[in-house]
Design goal:
Layout: H1 12-21, E1 29-32, E2 43-46, E3 49-53, E4 68-72, E5 75-78, H2 84-94, H3 116-130, E6 134-135, H4 139-147, E7 200-206, E8 226-229, E9 245-248, E10 255-257, E11 260-262, E12 275-276
Length: 291
Amino acid sequence: HYFIPLYTLTTQAAISSSIKKNTPKTDKFFQDSLKKEGVGPKMAVIPAGHFQMGDIQNVGTKWEQPVHTVSIDSFAIGRYETTFAEYDKFALATGRKLPNDEGWGRGKRPVINITWQDSVAYINWLSQQTGYTYRLPTEAEWEYASRATTSTKYWWGNKIGDNQGNCDNCGSEWDNKKTANVGSFAANYFGLYDTVGNVYEWTCSEYETIYNGKEQYCSKSNENAMVIRGGSWYSLPNYTRSAARFRSKDGDFTIGFRIARDYIRPAINETNIQVFPIKPRLYNYKRHLQK
């Protein structure tokens, strides 16, 4: 694939202490039931709002410009990157080839070596299993969820700090070596893990060199390069910022994905997860399609 790069905090203990003192911006988490058995991925409900999208600190390049205000409807997004365990369940159920784990292990590690089409195939299967229409997040939704109401380089501040994520020179044991199990670092204020590094994440938005509206919609096709976000275990810190954006047409050992869907029903706190067996109306996917 091809990338176009766009161009401290405190200790882990201090970060954890800060997080405990701050009230989370959402406390709504849920899982949908699967048709045959079990439950789907853990989801966080992201509240509606607006934010400044792009390179606010002016430390990237023109591909993160212009900084502009975007309004986001409430939606749900995976708390974790999709894991090998989740993807393998789909692959085995549908007779699909299992992706290569590079010898790093499967289970709770984020799935890698999957194309954009592979991620969509998993999402379509998950939609059939739950009765809800899942999808990839738009590029704008991804940045909004990653920032979690912040306007700094990373959700915790403007310096990468130490052991806050998995990237090249992030100070973790996996830096520039391999992926880490999802959830190995602190969650942001929306309850999302690993939005900084670990693996790049596919979005449903087509890449354009300068923002011109496509970041707010799902592309009608994937003939052109699609946006990937978040950086990976192989990325330098500047490429893991909330505003950093890249493009790709192929999968590799640095790219995975995180699922999303419209928020339809009330959810309850994760300490008392409820599975929703009722199948309401399906989400109208067309509202997110590129105009």
